[in-house]
Q: What sequence folds into this?
């Protein structure tokens, strides 16, 4: 319709020019630190969005919306968003301690000064201060790893997937690796044992059945093509009922008999025996080393509570061969991770200190009474906001270790269940996710639930502020 098109054209002409909006914005203190490019782009995008609305015929815009001052206001909001880092701190109120999507483990605060020091300065990363010659970046942690785990040698790479890949490539390229069918696991984020195997050029020799594998299954598969025996931690699932797995001790004996290396991929890997804290009995790295595994692989950021890293400990003979593989160079750990890992490792020299200072350990072992007290404190703070449609209930819940660790383990915890007269649970959940410090909770029975086991004391302020914001807004 011609008159429609004429109206659209008129509105399009009324939109302010970029320069006009920019001249309004530039003196504003709010945008002083913004690069000009970001401002210009935000204005362009804002105008673009208005143009699209006019052209799509979503009715004419309000006169006020086309004013330069209004466009400027929108452009500032857009620029503000563009200036925020994409990777941001969040509050984990899911109750999943090692939450892969939320960055797995929080680094211990005490590791920070060293990390800052190394990251912002030169260091002896690959420089031997004794001889003044080139050194090895792995030395920084190898000795500590041996001290903590009792192994002969250690190596650290980018992550546990890399550790497994490196092991297979070094020891079993073009040869066979014997694995139980019950251990051909897929860990979230596309780590699949058979796929890693294929990439490494090793051939998978599956033995046993999904639920039962016997020593004789392994023994029967050993031949002149066999390079190693591999045991993989089941990580994120468990098989119950009529089951049988071959213990590491039996595999080690079999490996010795046939002079084959035995590798255990622990995945999570822990240095402390959680059963001492009334929790689960997860096999420790030390136990695997003691039992005689030739190489043990595990993650730095799961139950260990450090930065992302893949750790290999075991017999010197094998670790030396791994180091000599050119792939090690491609999978190498960077200096920031290395120093964060070293600091974390140092904490393990004193288990009490480790449990107090490494957030993952602290959250897993915190007595329920402490979690409950924190939940009550938050409830009391939110209580002061009540009477405006907000209802908060404190309740028992179960938290989880997460991160492909201990799937069935339920850790008693305390949560707050949030309801609001005008907000659906899913709207509250979305609102909390959109906060300056996003708060990630879960929805249960149409209530927004915050599990306090994974929330720290210093985060209660953020949560309270978010609820204040919520009460000032209408649901959208
Ligand atoms: C988690 C896991 C991995 C992968 O570890 P990343 O550090 O994430 O690479 C490998 N194997 C097992 C058994 C695991 O649980």
A:
């Amino acid at each position: 319709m011609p008159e429609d098109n004429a109206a659209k054209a008129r509105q399009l002409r009324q939109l302010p020019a970029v320069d006009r909006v920019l001249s309004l914005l530039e003196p504003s203190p709010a945008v002083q630190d913004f690069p000009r490019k970001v401002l210009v782009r935000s204005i362009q995008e804002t105008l673009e969005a208005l143009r699209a609305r006019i052209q799509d015929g979503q009715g004419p815009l309000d006169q006020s919306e086309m004013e330069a001052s209004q466009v400027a206001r929108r452009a500032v909001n857009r620029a503000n968003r563009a200036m925020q880092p994409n990777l941001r701190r969040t509050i984990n109120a899911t109750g999943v301690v090692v939450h892969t999507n939320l960055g797995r483990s929080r680094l211990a605060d005490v590791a920070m000064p060293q990390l800052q020091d190394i990251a912002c300065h030169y260091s002896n990363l690959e420089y031997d201060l004794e001889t003044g010659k080139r050194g090895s970046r792995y030395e920084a942690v190898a000795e500590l790893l041996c001290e903590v785990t009792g192994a002969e040698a250690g190596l650290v790479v980018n992550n546990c997937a890399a550790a497994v890949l490196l092991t297979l490539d070094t020891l079993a390229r073009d040869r066979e690796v014997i694995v139980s069918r019950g251990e051909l696991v897929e860990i979230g984020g596309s780590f699949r044992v058979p796929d890693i195997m294929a990439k490494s050029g090793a051939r998978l020799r599956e033995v046993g059945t999904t639920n039962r594998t016997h020593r004789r299954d392994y023994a029967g598969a050993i031949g002149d093509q066999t390079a190693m025996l591999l045991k993989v931690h089941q990580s994120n699932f468990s098989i119950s009922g009529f089951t049988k797995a071959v213990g590491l001790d039996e595999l080690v004996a079999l490996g010795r008999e046939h002079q084959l290396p035995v590798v255990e991929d622990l995945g999570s890997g822990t240095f402390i025996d959680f059963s001492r804290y009334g929790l689960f009995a997860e096999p420790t790295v030390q136990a695997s080393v003691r039992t005689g595994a030739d190489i043990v692989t595990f993650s730095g950021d799961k139950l260990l509570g450090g930065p992302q890293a893949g750790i290999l400990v075991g017999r010197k003979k094998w670790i030396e061969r791994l180091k000599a593989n050119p792939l090690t160079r491609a999978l190498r750990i960077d200096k920031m991770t290395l120093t964060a890992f070293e600091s974390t490792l140092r904490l393990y020299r004193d288990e009490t200190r480790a449990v107090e200072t490494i957030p993952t350990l602290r959250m897993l072992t915190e007595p329920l009474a402490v979690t409950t007290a924190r939940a009550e404190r938050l409830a009391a703070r939110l209580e002061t906001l009540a009477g405006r449609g907000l209802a908060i209930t404190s309740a028992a819940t179960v938290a989880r270790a997460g991160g492909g660790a201990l799937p069935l383990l339920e850790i008693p915890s305390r949560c707050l269940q949030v309801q609001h007269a005008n907000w659906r649970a899913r709207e509250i959940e979305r609102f909390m996710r959109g906060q300056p410090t996003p708060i990630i909770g879960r929805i249960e029975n149409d209530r927004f639930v915050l599990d306090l086991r994974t929330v720290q004391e210093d985060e209660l302020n953020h949560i309270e502020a978010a609820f204040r914001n919520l009460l000032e807004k209408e649901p959208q």
Observations:
- Residues 91-99+364-471 form a domain with the Aspartate Aminotransferase, domain 1 fold (CATH 3.90.1150.180).
- The pocket of pyridoxal-5'-phosphate is lined by residues 159-161, 164, 187, 191, 232-233, 235, 265, 267-268, 299, 310, 404 (CB under 6 Å).
- The first strand starts at residue 91 and ends at 92.
- The chain has a mean pLDDT of 92.
